[in-house]
Every structure is written in C-alpha cells, then in structure tokens.
Design goal:
The chain is α/β, with parallel strands linked by helices. 37% of the residues lie in helices and 22% in strands. It has 10 helices and 13 strands. The strands form 4 sheets. Strands 3-2-1-4-5-6-11 form a 7-stranded parallel sheet, sandwiched between helices. Strands 7-10 form a two-stranded parallel ribbon. The protein has a two-stranded parallel ribbon with strand order 8-13.
Length: 285
C-alpha cells in the first residue's frame, strides 16, 4: 500500500483529494489545524506547515493543497523522504504580475519564488515535483469569488456588475482538481513541470456570474450598470469601510481575458475538466 502526506487536507481541494487517495488504496497522513476524525487508512495530525508533530519519516508522495510559499519553505527544510511531490499554486502567478496593486504583484512574486524553490529542492533530492495552477475554483462552497457572489445575491436578490465585465474566464470545479492531482502523481511526464488547470469551458465574466445567480434557489438577478457609475459606487463603499476586498485591480481584471491552455495537462496526465454547469449546492457548505 502506498502512503501519502497531505497538507491542507480539510480544505476545499484537500477533502476530495483525500477521498480519491483512500478510494485508490493509499494510506493517508493528513495535517489540519482543526481537530479531525481518523479512519482505517486515514490518520490526522494537528498542526500546520510551521509546526506539526508525528510526521512519518518517509512517504511515497506529498500533496500540498495550501499556501505554496509556506509549503516551499517547509519542503526545503524537511528531512522527510518522498519520491513524488504534488503542490497546488495558482494562475495568479501570471495574472497578477503587472497588477496596479502592489500586494497583488507581491503575490505573483512569492508564487514564482515558491515554485522555483520546490523544483530546485526536488532536483537535489532526485524527487519528481509537479505544481498545479488552478484558475477560478468553485464547487465546495468555500471559494472566495463565486461563493461570495452567491452569498451576497441570496441576501439581496441581485448582484451588480460593471457594463464592461466581459473578460473571459475558465472556472474549474474542485473535483476536477482532485482528479488532476491523482492523475499527475502517476505521470512521469509531469516531473519538474507546472501546469495550468483551467475549467472545461471558456465564458465571459458576466455570463459566469449570470449562470451562478440563475442556479440559486430562488434565482437572483444580474444587474449591469455603466462602468463609471460602478466605480463611483465602489469608491463610496470603500469610504464607508465596505467592499474592501474588491479593489481597483480586481475590477479592471473583470474586462481582461484570463485564459489558459489545458493542452499540456491533457497530454501529460489526461486532464479533462467539466463545463461550467453550477448548482445551488456548489455555493453552500
């Protein structure tokens, strides 16, 4: 029986990854900050990447489903032996490199540094490392984009977007990401490589939000307003201390195409994500 160490196992991607590992006869040691319940082939350790006790000395594979920069530092310092490493990063490495917001540019730098560190350490240890970069994640009710939109729309019955929010998006379901992780760990072609993991459909930002709102019970309306009016209203909300998570750079990206090629992941480990067909339950815990 093969063994896996999973960081972020209680998160939105971690839960389906562990389910698939167990279904494929892996013994799993998983780390979580919150108490979890063990099962026959699943052992939970309490802690995080900064401090956790009881880690095995060797496993067949490590899966990192949390912050990539934190994992890269842990991996560079650990003595734990693993022939295979699967770590989740983000396409933000590319989309935020030239952001007008300094904190967003810093995110891109940290992601790039973390990937480079992981690949270099894996090379030194003769291990095979793969970094997976999801696009806009949904499906578990725990994402920070579509679930937040759905939550607000449930309270108000509508959601407002600027008129130019037509940039292309490729939302990806958490179950498809879990499938990708399990497929990548088996692929020798994926050693030392990063892969974008977009969803199986490319659609405009406004259409993505419209489908999300239509899936709610009861459905909510999408309201489009002129972009200058939207920006003025957002500035007013910021002045009142509201909507702080929606900055100018995020609004600007609504009109930008953020499209990635699934071809390399499809070629190397059979990645086949689903089209965007949301249901109400995908945006609820």
């Amino acid at each position: 029986m093969r063994s896996a160490l999973v960081f972020g196992g209680s998160g939105q991607i971690g839960v389906p990854v562990i389910e698939r590992l167990l279904a494929n006869d892996w013994h799993v040691t998983a780390v979580s900050r919150a108490p979890q319940v063990d099962s026959a082939e699943l052992e939970w350790l309490r802690g995080d990447l900064q401090q956790v006790e009881g880690l095995p000395q060797q496993v067949d594979a490590i899966f990192s489903l949390g912050p990539l920069d934190h994992f890269s530092r842990w991996y560079s310092n650990t003595t734990l032996i693993a022939a295979r490493v699967i770590a989740f990063g983000s396409t933000s490495l590319e989309t935020k490199q030239e952001s007008e917001d300094l904190p967003e540019r810093d995110v891109a730098v940290r992601l790039g540094d973390a990937e480079a560190r992981i690949f270099e350490v894996a090379r030194q240890r003769q291990a095979g490392a793969t970094v997976l970069r999801p696009t806009l994640v949904y499906g578990a009710g725990r994402d920070k984009t579509l679930t937040r939109i759905a939550s607000l729309a449930r309270r108000t019955g509508f959601f407002v977007l600027p008129g130019n929010a037509n940039g292309l998006r490729q939302p990806v379901h958490v179950q498809d990401l879990a499938d990708a992780a399990l497929a990548a760990v088996e692929s020798a072609n994926a050693h030392g490589r990063s892969y974008a993991l977009p969803g199986g459909e490319t659609l405009a930002y406004a259409e993505m939000v419209k489908r999300t709102l239509a899936s709610l019970q009861p459905p909510a309306r999408l309201v489009r307003v002129p972009t200058p009016l939207f920006k003025a209203a957002l500035a007013g909300a910021h002045a009142l201390g509201k909507m702080q998570s929606l900055g100018g750079a995020a609004v600007a990206r609504m009109q930008q195409d953020l499209v990635f090629d699934l071809g390399p992941a499809q070629r190397d480990f059979g990645y086949a994500p689903r089209a965007f067909q949301p249901t109400d339950g995908m945006f609820s815990l």
